[in-house]
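User: Hi! I'm a student and our assignment asks us to look at how structure tokens line up with a sequence. Could you show me two examples?

Assistant: Happy to help. In each example below, the sequence comes first and the structure tokens follow. Example one:
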Amino acid sequence: MTIYALSSGPGLSGIAVIRISGPNTKKVLKNLTFLPIPSPKVASLRKFKNPETSELIDEGILLWFPRPESYTGEDMAEIHVHGSKAVIEAIYLCLSKIEGCRLAEPGEFTKIAFENGKINLLKAESISDLIASETEIQRQQAIKIMSGKSSDKFNFLRERLLKLLSNIEAKIDFPDEDLPNNILKNMRSEIKSIKIEIDKILNDQKVGEKIREGFKIAIIGPTNVGKSSLLNYLSKREVAIVSEIAGTTRDVIEVSLNLNGFPVVISDTAGIRESKDEIEKKGIKLALEKAENADLILIIIEPKSVDFARFLSDFGSDKSILVINKIDLGSDYTSDEIKKYDPVLISIKDEKNLDKLLNIIKQNLKNRFFIHENIFITRQRHRNNLEKCLEHLTNFEEKNFIEDFDKAAEDLRLATRYLGNIVGKVDVEEVLGSIFNDFCIGK
């Protein structure tokens, strides 16, 4: 089957790129241009015409990539035309009438590249992450994974396990032969070394996933202290309703932002207070849950808040920042009890000290989540497979080599398989489908 899709962004643009890949690509190009196929990887000016009427659709650039030296590993082409909706739809209509051609599904070009061995699964995921990146730190992480450092690490660990497995298999195939003591000793030492390396990879505070998905920040505090106003200020738009009526926010409002280069998901929550209203009580419960699961908590009070102590006792920690809003009112906010929490004094109304608050938030994230070069895990899928691998290596160590040799070998096989799953040595279609469905159409 030959597939096609718009690979440039939707909407009006100067140029639109339509990608075509599959066995009928040559046929498609001849039908659209009425000319021979151009030289590989050479931009050629072409008139694109309706195959049935020879009517001119547009004039643009044609790029031809013969297999296997193409992104997908199949015959592939790119048509660069003017980015109007009418031009794109006219070309789509012509392509849809060619036998064996259909519109591509999300991520299908990259999935074909993976299936043809052009890229591994980690690189495929990093391509998706790069396309979706909104901050510099997300772009940098995606590029690091694309460079192959993570793939090399997991493949190296897998090769070490395969070498151990070959010794085990030799014992099973030749049961009358005893493995030398030094091999058994080295095997245990090697397993222990591999476990230590995997433990180091897993002990990363989930920074890779947080960068990819966004650091979670929860704004909590009493009613009417400016939580929604702060969210609107950070979002630079009216995200939440602001009112002098206490208890206006009842549900959790979440916004994804680029906060001084950090990808964050900020949650505005219901004001925490005693309430008999069932809906408000549910909102308060959600607020407490968001605070518990957040990477950073902004506890907002105002100078006249007398009952702030319980917020600090419940949530005051290294992941909390105390913020005192409404200092423009001139109330006393310098008590020793407040000072010991090193509060940030702001006025959202007068936009006072808000830059200082942003810098403190950024510094807090930097201090709590050390973002280093050796980030290998960016998705929960990677973590699950590593944890399973570690589990089977532990089971392997607990087996008696003499009595449970076959069972020990099975644990080693499974550990090796879980490591292979990370880079794409898998044959489960459901796993591949769940990954490539996250891509945009045309990639």
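Example two works the same way, sequence first and then tokens:
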Amino acid sequence: MEKTIPTIFRKPHGPIVIDGPVDLTDAEGNPLPHGPKFTLCGCGKSQRMPYCDSSHKD
């Protein structure tokens, strides 16, 4: 059965985890590619914004 309601949670001092179907766009409304589960940067240190690259661990 396909998951129809996304789960979104923030890890302490780290990324925002998205699990489930969502539409992600940039500020201009252009779609941003992602898989069924992905992480967004929550600290602002990522070199791959808006995605987390684990820079918060440094």
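Here is something you could point out in your write-up. The two ends are 38 Å apart (CA to CA).
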